[in-house]
Specification:
The protein contains 5 helices and 10 strands, in the order H-H-E-E-H-H-H-E-E-E-E-E-E-E-E. The chain has 192 residues and is an alpha+beta fold. It has one domain. The strands form 2 sheets. The protein has a 6-stranded mixed β-sheet with strand order 5-6-2-1-8-9. It has a 4-stranded antiparallel β-sheet with strand order 4-3-7-10.
């Protein structure tokens, strides 16, 4: 197979997954789904597209919020938003992140539910930016103190891609813990 004519996003996804392997190996719990994801690429010789989002969450005492940064492949998010809006959405065109900010915010507000210490907390979508072939989202979850327990339901892209995995890394009180939401397990929780 030659490289001529292949979509550059195809290669970026594989590079992204390859770079994520060390992070996956540092997860605070070992889950069969994570192990499968980590090793599947090294044993498979056939092309396979992965559907994976990675988010990082930390507590910021100055603003009194959990701050979440999530990364999604642009083409996957464009597919989902296009289906939802019933129009062809291209996020990479100039001005379109601003034009579609409300649509993106509404989508993630409907797909992300967070309970902190047993209380459902509304999320605040701040905005996004494009980095290479990914859309980086910035979300805040207002809480008065560092949480002891977090329960999350994160179903972004799962309505279109049944293999979608949404991985969320937390760093609270110096502890690192990871949640993984998949179609068969859309809710996960962690205690600190």
């Amino acid at each position: 197979m030659t490289l001529i004519g292949l979509n550059p996003y195809f290669f970026m996804k594989y590079i992204f997954v390859f770079l994520m392997i060390p992070l996956l190996s540092q997860a605070s719990y070992v889950d069969r789904e994570v192990e499968d994801l980590r090793f599947r690429e090294s044993v498979s010789s056939t092309a396979h597209k992965y559907y994976l989002s990675v988010s990082n969450v930390k507590y910021n005492a100055k603003v009194g919020a959990l701050q979440m940064t999530s990364r999604f492949f642009i083409d996957d998010l464009e597919d989902v938003l296009s289906t939802r809006a019933d129009e062809n959405i291209i996020l990479t065109e100039d001005g379109n992140l601003t034009k579609y900010k409300q649509l993106i915010g509404d989508y993630f507000t409907s797909r992300l539910r967070i309970k902190v210490d047993g209380e459902l907390i509304p999320i605040d979508y701040l905005g996004s930016e494009i980095e290479n072939d990914q859309l980086v989202l910035y979300i805040e979850i207002p809480v008065k103190r560092e949480p002891l327990e977090i329960e999350m339901r994160f179903t972004a892209l799962m309505e279109l891609f049944e293999d979608q995995k949404n991985m969320v890394h937390f760093k609270i009180r110096g502890e690192r813990k990871t949640l993984l939401m998949i179609a068969k397990k859309k809710i996960d929780s962690v205690k600190f």
